[in-house]
Amino acid sequence: MERGGCVYILTNKNNTTLYTGVTSNLQSRIYEHLNQKYKHSFSAKYNLVNLVYYKFYPTIDEAIAEEKRVKAGNRQNKEKLINLFNPQWEDLYGKEVKHW
After folding, report:
1. Residue 2 has pLDDT above 70, yes or no
2. Residue 87: which residues within 8 A CB-CB, separation 6 or more?
3. What stretch of H or E contains 72?
4. Cβ contact 50:11 at 8 Å
5. What are the GIY-YIG domain coordinates in residue numbering (predicted)?
6. What is the pTM of this model?
7. Strand partners, 55
8. Is 15 helix (H, G, I), strand (E, B) or coil?
9. What is the pLDDT of residues 80-89, one digit of tens each?
């Protein structure tokens, strides 16, 4: 059985920078971002610590395809996704994902 995937968007405390990623383990991957496992990564450089969007897919291939689609879009398209899912732009890691 193939493992599912998840597309997610991170931002910084001022919501000025967005990062779109894909993972098969959301909780673990966000923990890595928060603890700057990769010190020279984009998310570490811009202090992207707030999970503001995520969506699960049945397969990792579907998630990767969606990540590519989201990344190809402009900031306005990403903001629309976030606003529909999380209008207050709350940090969903601390509120939800961390406690799974």
Report:
1. no
2. none
3. helix 60-72
4. yes
5. 3-80
6. 0.92
7. 7
8. coil
9. 999 999 999 9
